[in-house]
Amino acid sequence: MVVKEYETKFSNPFAEIKKETPEYKAKRIRQRWIDQLNPKLNRKPLNDEEKVYVVQWIKDNLGQDDKIEWKRLISDMEKKFNTLRPDNIPKNYWYSLKRKLLGKIPQDEKLENLQLLSFLADKELKQIIDN
What we know:
Layout: H1 2-9, H2 13-20, H3 26-37, H4 48-61, H5 70-81, H6 88-102, H7 113-118, H8 122-130
Helix pairs in contact: 1-2, 2-3, 4-8
Organism: Rhizophagus clarus
Protein name: HTH myb-type domain-containing protein
């Protein structure tokens, strides 16, 4: 693979690849590699343990202004489960779960992530994931 070869030769392989394909920016090349082309990517659905981990990680690491650091979550998941996930898999899982939870709450209440997470007692989490 071109990226693998360039990784060993250059400190910024994506900038070097850009020189050969000037119609694309280095950032776009990098993002395409990270999200789609990297052969290490595991695109299978999250298993139950990973789902619980995503929710627990968000509970423990929710940033200021309700921000979720997805790159950090992906990195931590890779270390814990020894598998690399595209950013969108845990994101899609979280936002799907969030929609499901919001459907169970009166519509006149606007809840942020932190408030939403407070509804998730650990015993309830397993039920939600299973449904």
